[in-house]
Amino acid sequence: MVRYLKSATHVQKPIQLTTMYLSVIFLFHLTAASLAAFDEPTDIAYTQHERTQVFSAINENFASYRREQQLLLKEQDLHNITQQRLVLIGSLLLLVTLGMINYKRYREKKMHALELAAKNKKIDRQFAQLKRTNAQNELLLREIHHRVKNNLQLAASLLNMQLRSSENPEAISALRESASRLHSMLLVHHELYDKDHLGTVRMATYIKSLMEYLLQSYLRSQDEVIPSIRIAETITLKTDIAIPLGLIMTELITNSLKYAKPPEKEITIQVSLCAETPENYRLNYRDNGQGLPENRDVKAGDTMGLRLIRDLTKQLKGALTYQHPAVFTITFKI
What we know:
The chain is α+β, with helices and mostly antiparallel strands.
């Protein structure tokens, strides 16, 4: 409003000055003409009343002219006011539109944030439920491993009792081998039950425990057997791979303890398990015994031990190779 008043004042002053200037000039010329008419000699004599009427007409014309100028000024002022109101209304409409757009965006963002928070809460509840279910499953699985271990331990104990009461050398050998196989599976479940890494077996610990048990079972001391186990502590395998590998190792170690007759006094057993790639593994086993005959094909061997090793290698979907004198290599994938 202040700007409008200032603008109207600046516009009105030049117009008023121009009007006054023209009015003065007009009045001056009209008065001069009248006086000249009165001063000139004429046959017509003007009365005082006639001169008064002339001056009244002049004043009326001047007043009429001023009224017209004032009407023009008012129209100009009204036009300016109308334009300013239109600009103000347009600005207000623009501000209202922008405000509504921003408010709509704010509402959308708020709704999106609320939906995201609701989804996160739902995911957290599902995660908590899965965590509880997983804990229950782990507890059940541990209980299963514990019961399997106890059952295997019972079966191995029965075999050992039968072994001590038997006097037949062939029966004693068969019972001892069967007990060793049961114990290799028992160690897997013992490892699974007593450790935190449920579902996987640390192969270094497992093979060392298996080696110690077999040495004790066959009454061999460290002076008679020198084992060398090279397995990284980080290698862990699932039970469906660890159990067949344990049975294969049982057969190979048992065969070395029973039949290896090296020229030296001590039996040297070397075991290594390594990952060639993240999916491909290699198991190497060797002793310093005389090994199998050179013309012996391990893939066609008919002994119980060789048949078991072949079948377990097939179960692992692996490949078995033999190199004379006593080197077994098994490659498999996980």
